[in-house]
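Quick check before the chapter quiz. The format below is the same one you will see on the exam, so make sure you can read both the input and the output lines.
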Amino acid sequence: MGNHRSYDLALLAALLVSLVLFVLPLFFFLRQSFYENLGMGLVGDRPSLRNYTDILTDPFYLGVFWRTTRLSAAAALIGLCIAYPTAYVLARSRSGFVRALIVLLLITAFVSIIVKVLGLTVLMGSQGPIAALLRALTGSAASMLHNEFAVAVGLVQYSLPLLVMLLFGVIQTIPRALEEAAAVGGASDWRLIRRVLLPLSLNGVITAGLIAFNMNMGAFTSAVLLGGGNVLTVPVLIQRKIVLDVDYPVAAALAVLLSLGVFAINVAVATLRRSPTGASRLRRAAA
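Here is the expected output.
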């Protein structure tokens, strides 16, 4: 009885700490989004929806939201295309080398995102190995940085280790006997993927893709370093509003709208998956 009471008290203490350090700051941040910016870090005393209406009716802000969504979705799709076959090979192989690759993948997942992005900066820069190879082949090469392509590459790199590990777990749940039966029946590798593996792993693929999309929507480091100020996404814009413009209310409103937009997309996908019509469409698309 005493042990249970101690456990409950420890859990309550953890919840209170989470409330103070996480929930309350979010509440005050949300509250500030309803007040007008007076300049110099000062805000008005009358709540209104002006920040939200200004953002939702301004083509500039809408363009930034569209760019962020487009890059995040593209990076998630590209990441899935790379992660799925990689996860399949890792899940089906029994060699010690593959196990070493899994450990290496886990290690890279915990490497700082700044270190990863700086590595890409060197790799894709005008003096990097890719530019050197292009110069050797074509005689000229430019930097591949500071554009949407560079940001997309950074987003793929950011979410790829997690995608591989998620899909690795999904594919491991599919019995090998199904693949062997399809192979005995004369199914080609491509038909095996389309007719057996992908339909059985579709829910896991969608979930992994949504997780990658959510991560990409909030990614700041990849966009600000690889974009070089030329690719404006919502997280970068929020940082500029706070640091350069000292406009906390608009920054808060942008953060709230970004969170609501991501939440709405996740709810829409979940609703589509649960409806019979939507589920059949997803299965047909996978096939």
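If your answer matched, good. Strands lie at 37-39, 42-43.
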